[in-house]
Amino acid sequence: MEYGSLAFQALAATIKIVFMILGFLMPLASILTWMERRESAMMQDRLGPNRANIGPFKLWGITHFMADAVKFLFKEDFVPPKAHKFLFMWAPIMAMAPALIVAAIIPFGPPLCWNELLEKNPVCGQPINLQIAQLDVGLLFYFAISSLAVYGATLAGWASHNKWAMMGGLRATSQMMSYEVTMGMAVLGSFLVYGTLEPGAIVAQQTHIFSLGHYHSSWGIFLQPAGFVLFLTAAIAETKRTPFDIPEGEPEIIGYFVEYSGLRFGMFFLGEFLEIVVSSAIMITLFFGGYHWGNTIDNALLSHLPNFVFVLAMFGLWTVKVFAFCGFQLMIRWSLPRFRSDQLMRLGWQRLLPISIANVVATALVVLWAQQ
Amino acid sequence: MILGGVGFAFALTAAAKYLGPSRPSAAKDYPYECGSDVIGSPRARFEVKFYQVAIVFLVFDIETAFLYPWALKYRALSCLGQVDLQTRVCTGGVSFFGLGEILVFMGILIVALAYVWRKRAVGWE
Amino acid sequence: MSAGGATTVDMVVFGVLATLTTFFALFTITRRNPVTAVMSLVATFFCLAGIYASLSAHFLAVIQVLVYAGAIMVLFIFVIMILNREEVAPFSLRPLRVLGVLAGVYLLVKIIDVVTVGLPEAVPGAAPDGFGTVAAIGDVLFRDFLYPFESISVLLLVAIVGGVVVSRSHQKEVAAVEAHDYRHQIEELAHHDYPGEPPAPAAPEGYH
Known about the structure:
The complex is a heterotrimer. Chain A has helices at 6-43, 64-73, 85-102, 138-159, 163-186, 188-194, 199-205, 220-223, 225-238, 263-287, 295-304, 307-333, 341-370, and strands at 112-113, 127-128.
């Protein structure tokens, strides 16, 4: 099978897809379900779930997520009698699928040099990009698919034929819509600086952690600090995590998935954790250098390690970064009080949106000045 | 490639859907789970504020869609000569054309935001 | 996917997407349930975006999903959910039926025309490099089409103001009805332990 042939590309794409979904996203999202409870427990000075075990191995209870999955699988699949059957089934899929689809554009490592896998510092003649789809419209794809995730909440609320669920669905939908605008505006500054929408190209530009000479090779967080804060807030609001979890605020108010049970409910929550993972990955790509270690370490690794190991090292760092960000988002949950519905909307439209517009204008001015 | 990226999620979620209703044990018909259905009719009160938020969201979404190509082309638009790709420096003069045109565009839409703010269509909910 | 001419892969992709688009569009107009109709319209737009992408108009494809399927359809769903009607059987008035039949006949004639007369001989050429990318659109949009671009912002402003104004008058109506019900329930509480049923709405209830 030749390098450039269609069969090769199809095989490479399939391997990447399978690896990404089954090997990375799903396990990480599932572990996050357990990690959230354990991390919140540790923050609240209690134990949390630590008892599930496989044989003699407890592993601090990591296997809880498997127990949860099995439990969800074997629960009765109950559809409320008056619910709209097709849409009731379709809503959890609409909640989970966008998070998976969006992972297609995330670069998780430097290119693998086919035919030069064991060489150090190769001239990459036949690179395999560690990115499922290298789209020219890159991050716009992310925004487009995220805007489809809104339907998950809306349909869930409506299809349940339960007026509380529907009100929860309307609330959730308006919350997601409000913060989608801010999310789009927040990264406009990054686009101004990097001049491209394609995540692979954006990561490739962030070679230094912080450099004054080539300021545009620094990590994104130093070029766009306001953009990062805005995007972080908007992404947390999009995923309806605390402190923005009024739509699902468990003990206080009925959410839009009140009529869902078993695996369908599990799919909503898994979708939420998948979105956490994916938004962490996007934040790392835009603001924290993706898979780069920093210029000196990168060059050292490149010249001393065979290509295959080099790629593994970068991928390992990327995984650690994603993990750290997910942990950070989980930690925020118990650090901030929950926003009331109107405070939330006010924050989105009257605080974050003007700030993001100001960020765009300021960045434009700085770029103009730096061009001289 | 785009189709490939879209296809895999459906494959997985279809698998999850298939696994979903695999073990129905008891087939009892539970009634509504929201307690007693006493308060008024199921026809919800007309909460028009959601509609207003949706309209405002739509307009600002379109505005952002126009801003994306502007952001990509900003360096070229604000440079009278050519932009050196390596050093990001403009050879030739710097013009305010790129900035100016977008300020007009965004200015009008900031007026829209101010109007909506004032009329409390998005401020309180 | 900007291979020159019409390769087999392109034809297959187009065939699949076109079939799906037509199928979903037909699905949309034959549903009784408005929400199902809206969702199949979303699917139609998704397939349409696929067709745009296969024609190398990547930016347009993404914007189609982002704006049309992601924002406008959500607006449609909001309106349907807010109005909260039960499913209605499709209705048709006599003159509309005649018009519909005429339109269908016209469409059929046109389709037969295209199919029998055949397509033009010239095979479409390859799209130039960078066609349809965001940067290419930016190039044209902000230099040659500057005036239409600025006037779009005015159009959007008009749309926002119009939307808010139109829904605001109804908002006052609903607020009046709610205030009326609330006063009634407070009065009831003066005499009974629980508030009674809200009175039959005296003010018009809005759209029916």
